[in-house]
Amino acid sequence: DLKENELCPLLLKEKCGIIPFASFETVRAKFKLRGLALDLDLASFGHGVLEIELMVDSPERIYEAEQQISQIAKEIGVQPLSGSQGGKLETYIR
Fold it and tell me: Are strands 36-43 and 48-53 parallel, antiparallel or unpaired?
């Protein structure tokens, strides 16, 4: 039996002749810390990304939310991705 995520690539190959040029899996862990959402993505080839988010109800609260995000990032020892760092696929290809 094929899983749903295995079936789609097979159908693309069969119907369109499309084959993947990269293949990896990602595991996501979700956390909450002082009202902020932390999503940790770990790719099967070792690349990891942590997203820290805080939803606000008005544009006036964006600056405050950014400050809270920066504070949490500093406390847990993470830094924003630089312009030379890419997403999972770009990192995988490199």
Answer: antiparallel
Q: How far apart are CA 6 and CA 20, in angstroms?
A: 12
Please, which residues bridge with residue 23 across strands? Answer: none
Kindly report, residue by residue over 55-67, the tens digit of the pLDDT: 999 999 999 999 9
Q: Is 77 left (phi over 0), alpha (psi -120 to 50) or beta?
A: left
Assign residue 61 a region (left: φ > 0; alpha: ψ between -120 and 50; beta: otherwise): alpha
Is this prediction's pTM over 0.85? no
Instruction: Note the residue count of the chain.
Output: 94
Cβ(49)–Cβ(88) under 8 Å? yes
